[in-house]
Amino acid sequence: MKNEIIVRFGIHDFNDITHSEITELLSGIQPDIIHVKGEKRNPKKIDSPLIKKNSWILGSGLSKYSPFEDQMESLLDIIESNIDRFKILCDRYYCEFSCALFVYAKNDESTPWVHLNSRYNELVKKLNVEFDVDLYVFHNEE
User: Fold this and answer.
1) Which of 14, 27, 48, 109 is most exposed, with minimal Cβ within 10 Å?
2) Taking the model in full, what pTM does it have?
3) What would the pLDDT profile of 38-52 be if each residue is shown by its tens digit?
4) In degrees rounded to 5, what are phi and psi of residue 126?
């Protein structure tokens, strides 16, 4: 299995604006994922837990096999082109970059790296944004 990296930008925990209003405010940028508070996480399962907060989540548009740096640059391109609109949302709601790393041991690949460069640092000085990283390591049984 190949290592996977998923980088996203999310706007979370809003109740006074709709997902479509966020999309409209951001000049029509479409989210990859939306979570609606109170809906089932998996509608196909009768006992699925309910979603606890509204979320509007934007992906990088790149493959999960693309390097972290490429995915982050893609998101920065989108956000910087609408920085004033993102600032309005980041000032009002919880916003974060999230990075999930799926690392498969003994697959002859180096461990993916996460490097936040000066471009990212300049952006977070302007926006109230958190950064979250989750690491999942899978060991192949031989």
Assistant:
1) 27
2) 0.93
3) 999 998 998 999 999
4) -90, -30
